[in-house]
Amino acid sequence: MGRDLVRALPNLAIALVVLLITWLVAKFATRIADIIIGRSSLRPSLKNLIDTLVKLAIWLAGLMVALVVVMPGFTPASVIAGLGIGAVAIGFAFQDIFENFLAGVLIMLREKMRIGDVIECEGIVGKVEHITLRETHVRKLSGEVTLVPNAMLFKNPVMILTDEVQRRHEVVAGVSYDTDLDRAADVIRQAVAGAEGVDTDKGIDVFAQEFNSSSIDFKVRWWSGSKPRDMWESRDKVVRAIKRALDKEGIEIPFPYVTYTFKERVPLGREPGEAAED
């Protein structure tokens, strides 16, 4: 065994040199691919996929050469035969890894959910920062980063909040029951139209929605920026504008009312209004 190990040392050294060359080639090939891809209009996710595939192909070739150097009897055919025998076992053992790998490739290939989009999936809301073949990095709106398995994003519905530049927002505004609803709707509509950031070209909806316990509620809808901060800023401006306009017109935004009803309790055998005996 000692003599065999000594005889194998040159081959091991050559294999290490092959792996070092493979690392250098993969590094420079990735840079060249980035330069070539940089001149195109490919999405960042596709660029990441191409870089990953280039690295993977070079490393597979380098590892194959290194194995042939260390084990001269090693051939690609033996690798294929070995994989055929153990494919079922490997598939069960690494099912999650393969699932996330394939999901990552498909996510990178599809046009939707680009890097920089704000998404919502299974209670996770945040900005897509990076997509790998194993997981997607989602930066939550509060600053934390969540590593989401690609299979989760591929198998579950994903809401892309920033797919378009604008999205529709809505709030509920209530007025008292003695208010002229047509006049109140006009006041609310003009207030929303005058708020900063509201796209009046797409229209402003003011619908009388329901009879609430203390008010008649209007659902107010308008179009503005799709980013989460744009949403909060737009809602703030619209709510303030509606409040000022209703106050100016003397239209009441009612507090919750509570009505108490008192009934006279009459003892048995006595008529209502009959005086009680001492």
Features:
about 280 residues; elongated; 3-stranded antiparallel sheet; Small-conductance mechanosensitive channel; SH3 type barrels; Helix Hairpins; 3 domains; 5-stranded antiparallel sheet; Alpha-Beta Plaits; single chain; 7 helices; alpha+beta
Number of strands: 8
End-to-end C-alpha gap: 121 Å
Helix content: 40-55%
Calculate the mean pLDDT score and round it.
Answer: 81
Tell me the radius of gyration.
34 Å
Described by strand count, sense and barrel closure, the largest sheet is: 5 strands, antiparallel
Broad CATH class of the largest domain: Mainly Alpha
SS class: alpha+beta
Instruction: State the shape.
Output: elongated
Largest beta sheet: what is the strand line-up? Answer: 4-3-2-1-5
Domain Mechanosensitive ion channel MscS C-terminal: 170-253
Transmembrane segments: 12-33, 53-74, 80-109
Main location: membrane
Domain Mechanosensitive ion channel MscS: 96-158
Describe this structure in words.
- It is a single chain.
- With 278 residues, the protein is α+β, with helices and mostly antiparallel strands.
- It has 3 domains: 2-93, Helix Hairpins; 113-160, SH3 type barrels (Roll); 166-248, Alpha-Beta Plaits (2-Layer Sandwich).
- Helix content is 49%, strand content 19%.
- The protein has 7 helices and 8 strands; from the N terminus they run H-H-H-H-E-E-E-E-H-E-E-H-E-E-H.
- The chain has helices spanning 2-38, 44-70, 76-93, 95-109, 150-155, 181-193, 228-248; strands spanning 118-121, 124-131, 135-140, 145-149, 159-160, 166-175, 205-211, 216-225.
- A 5-stranded antiparallel sheet has the order 4-3-2-1-5. Strands 6-8-7 form a 3-stranded antiparallel sheet, with helices on one face.
- Helix 2 packs across helix 4 (95-109).
- The radius of gyration is 34 Å and the shape is elongated.
- The N and C termini lie far apart (121 Å).
- This is Small-conductance mechanosensitive channel.
- Residues 96-158 form the Mechanosensitive ion channel MscS domain.
- It holds the Pfam family MS_channel_1st_1.
- Residues 170-253 form the Mechanosensitive ion channel MscS C-terminal domain.
- Its main location: membrane.
